[in-house]
Amino acid sequence: MGRGTRLEIKSAPASGSETRSRLKISMDLLKDIAESSVTWRTIKEDGLNLEYSVPIPKSIADRIFQELENSLEYFTGNLTLIKVFGKVYPLPRQQVAYGEPGVTYTYSGVTVPALPWPEPVLNLRDFLLKLKGIKYNFVLVNRSHLFPNERTFY
């Protein structure tokens, strides 16, 4: 782990032009969401200033989730392990990172490299840029195995 870590990727099944056309449909739906239709809420307490919203309607979010489920490629090998107090454990989730060239994320002695942005993730990043004016340079996608009956990305 850490130095000399091999980068391996586990591919999810993809179906060529059919997958591309499905991606385009849902991503086009994202472009149709007007900034003015998004309602923002704020929580302010001592040391906290949180602004949040649910900007993507459930029907569109479900389609995007399915596209991500079918197209994301997760790390395998050493990048699926974590070192805690000197002992190595398998991660209880699948994960992959996407971002700008050269960006990495390090935690618990593991350095996670950013792979190039896949189209669906890049479209979500661009949607957030349109909504809030923030251009993210990295995302760590986690697919939980803790709740196998729930569809969970975080």
From TrEMBL:
Residues involved in substrate binding: F85, G86, K87, Y105, T106, Y107
Gene3D superfamilies, per the entry: Alpha-ketoglutarate-dependent dioxygenase AlkB-like
Transferase is among the record's keywords: yes
- Phylogenetic lineage: Eukaryota, Metazoa, Ecdysozoa, Arthropoda, Hexapoda
Q: Which UniProt keywords apply?
A: Methyltransferase, Transferase
Q: Does the keyword Transferase apply?
A: yes
Please list every transmembrane segment annotated in the UniProt record, as residue ranges: none
Q: Which cofactor does it need?
A: Fe(2+)
Q: PANTHER family under this entry?
A: ALPHA-KETOGLUTARATE-DEPENDENT DIOXYGENASE ALKB HOMOLOG 2, DNA OXIDATIVE DEMETHYLASE ALKBH2
User: GO MF terms on file?
Assistant: broad specificity oxidative DNA demethylase activity; cytosine C-5 DNA demethylase activity; ferrous iron binding; methyltransferase activity
BP GO terms, sorted:
DNA alkylation repair; methylation
Name used for this protein in its record: DNA oxidative demethylase ALKBH2
Which residues does 2-oxoglutarate bind? N142
Its domain of life? Eukaryota
